[in-house]
Amino acid sequence: MRLHARALLYFDAIRKAGSIREAARRLHVASSAVNRQLLELEDQIGAPLFERLPAGLQLTAAGEVVARHVIVVLQDAHRVDSELDALRGIRRGEVSLQAVEGLNADFLPQVLAQMAQHYPGVRVTTRSSGSASMAAAVAMGEADVAVGFALPRHAELTQLAMCRFDLGAVVTPAHPLAGRAAVSLSDCAAYPLLLPGAELSVRWLLQPWLDRLAGQLHVPLESASIDLMRTLARDGVGVAFQTRLGLERELAAGQLVFVPLRTPGALVSELGVYVRAGRALAPALDAFVRLLTEAVARAQAVETAQGAHLR
């Protein structure tokens, strides 16, 4: 069976958009042209690839099989283009990144600045999300690389780098917990808590201990936004929870204090860099991944030094 390249491109656009009309808009072609390519592809496959639902188009079982093939084909085609460009001395390309919001403060800006300096022709597209959705995004080709905390094991992902960070209570310097060397969640429960939403990996780590303290907690805010919780902690509204990563500026400026959690041992969150398993990395993506893994190694060295100092 020979699948036409245009049909694969249009199929992938429909998969991502969830509708023929939106796919056509993104492709800058007529809806009828997109629909025609889809019908021809379905005829060639011998089965419908999408289920027509009121909420939009959803992949059928056959569509899922074709989608996995299309992702591999299109990513390999992009890699070939990038390698040919590299041979011509043209440093250009595109990289799509999905990362947790907490990295936007300091970690990612440093990596992106390095990328722009060394590879000015490469465009990086970033999207912030919780760790829960990252595995599917990389596996389905919606992101080239993901950086997230505590991603569950996934057969279609390869972990390229990993570091461990202590989880801590984040409070204003005037808070009663600010002078402590370490705190338990029972200590924190005496004060208003700013809790991460269920889609954030920090909540997964905290949940067993929160369950034990049920009925004792005052929670004025539950949010998926690390930035919002950090801001409210700085304003003295309550106790937030995160790693030191993303707090660099506030800690250096004395606006916030990080107090390690002990339960009685440390609560540790793992930050990893992930790509799709078995994927050959295009030059632009390979360069970006190398900068990411180097930044992860530096962050781990800083975390290890700070942890040793506290102990």
From TrEMBL:
Keyword set, alphabetical order: DNA-binding, Transcription, Transcription regulation
GO molecular function: DNA binding; DNA-binding transcription factor activity
UniProt cross-references to Gene3D superfamilies, sorted A to Z: 3.40.190.290, Winged helix-like DNA-binding domain superfamily/Winged helix DNA-binding domain
Pfam families given in the database record: HTH_1, LysR_substrate
Natural source organism: Comamonas terrigena
Domain called HTH lysR-type: residue spans: 1-60
Family, per entry: Belongs to the LysR transcriptional regulatory family.
Alphabetical list of InterPro entries matching this protein: HTH-type_LysR_regulators, LysR_HTH_N, LysR_subst-bd, WH-like_DNA-bd_sf, WH_DNA-bd_sf
Tagged with keyword Transcription: yes
Superkingdom per UniProt: Bacteria
GO CC terms in record: cytosol
Protein name, per record: LysR family transcriptional regulator
